[in-house]
Amino acid sequence: MRNWALDLPMIKQVLADELGSPVQDQDSSKAFGRLSDALLEPDEKLHLVASLADQGREPAGYKHWQE
C-alpha cells in the first residue's frame, strides 16, 4: 500500500505541469470550499459543521465556504 505523503509531491508536480504554474495548498482548500458550496444546501453544511465540531474537527475548505 502506498503512503499518501510519499505520493503527494508527485501529484502536485503533475498538476503544476498541467496547469503551467505551481499548486499551492491553499488552492485545494479554496477548491473544497467551492465544491461544498456547489453540492451542499445550507442546512446540510450546518449539520456537517456541527457533527465535525463534536469531534474537534472542521470540513476541508471550511474557511472558504460561502455563508
Descriptive notes:
The chain has a domain at 24-67. 66% of the residues lie in helices and 0% in strands. The protein has helices spanning 4-19, 25-39, 42-54. The protein is elongated and about 40 Å long.
Q: What order do the SSEs take from the amino end to the carboxyl end, as H and E? A: HHH
Q: Residue share in helices?
A: 55-70%
Low-confidence stretches: none
Rg (C-alpha, Å): 15 Å
- Distance between termini? 39 Å
Q: Mean pLDDT score, rounded?
A: 83
Short description:
It contains three helices and no strands. The chain is mostly helical.
List keywords for this structure.
67 residues; mainly alpha; 3 helices; elongated
Give the SSE layout.
Elements: H1 4-19, H2 25-39, H3 42-54
